[in-house]
Design a protein that fits this description.
Structural class: alpha/beta
Number of strands: 11
Shape: globular
Radius of gyration: 21 Å
Largest sheet: 7 strands, mixed
Order of helices and strands: EEHEEEEHHEHEHEEEHHHHHHHHH
Helix content: 25-40%
Strand content: 5-15%
Amino acid sequence: MTSDRMSGPSTSSTPSGPSGPSGPGGAGGAGGAGGALRPHRVVVLALDGLLPFELGIPQRIFGLARDERRRPLYEVVTCSVRPPGPVATDADFAIMVGNGPEALATADTVVVPASYELGPVHEQGVLTEELAAALAHVRPGTRLVAICTGGYVLAAAGHLDGRPATTHWASAEHFQRLFPKVRVDPDVLFVDDGDVLTSAGVAAGIDLCVHIVRRDHGTAVANEVARRTVVPPHRDGGQAQYVARPVPDPQQSSTTNARAWALGRLQEPIRLRDMAAQESMSVRTFTRRFREEAGVSPGQWLTQQRVERARQLLESTALSVDQVARDAGFGTAQSMRQHLQAALGVTPTAYRRTFRAELSTACGE
């Protein structure tokens, strides 16, 4: 895992690079006619007291991902810790779950959404016998994902010991006290530590699942999923911007115009004072207002956008690395290489090779 974040220091922590189609982050094993890859199987563990919104995130995001032939890239299955039957939610209804814990043994990725009835998991940091027995079905090497306080389950099982992780900002201090071996980052929207990923609260689970699609299959597939879900492909900043604070004066200007102006000229040198001028602000006021709105500094935000632009160009064009560097605003290939290495843990050439290989496989080449 790299210490830098793909989406900036207050958005996410990222792995050492994109996973190939047969790895824990890929499309699953071989199968079907002509050696076609089977969909990557995601098994979602529904616990009593679950939040219906969070339970639905994996199905909605992964269920929309399609390859070039419009074939599903993921298969999403929901299971319980008990035999098939009703599972209580935090709402005034229960849900019927058609699979027992044995389904966890078939997973390429296991997702644990939040629950308000974790009992000793939340209070003492230990698994119940029932939950421990269910998790025993998970095969070694399976990718593990937690949404919001679902991270308590992974931590209680020992999967987060010595690793970076996040959870809902309101639970971060309690989470750290209960699990001192976990390196809790309360500011980010999600943490990607390779085979174990955790998100902040509620809607941050969408950010994490879209990130996983991007990591597995590239920006184009992730952007299509985001468009169909009517959410941004990635959000700027971290969850610090959602902590309660005094409501800003409605008379205050925003930095929206400056960001739109910068996005239209990423390939050019962009100075802080030029961005501030778009909002008729002093540099000091603009920097403070920008950080309040985006959760990161203007410089960090620009780097995020340029990394995203470079990823898109590397995936979707045959431009040389030098040209991609210029078009993304890095100026030189060496500068782009350093930024991608810091953000993704991989060189531009290796990144392009990974997603070109996946595209060729998806197209049956």
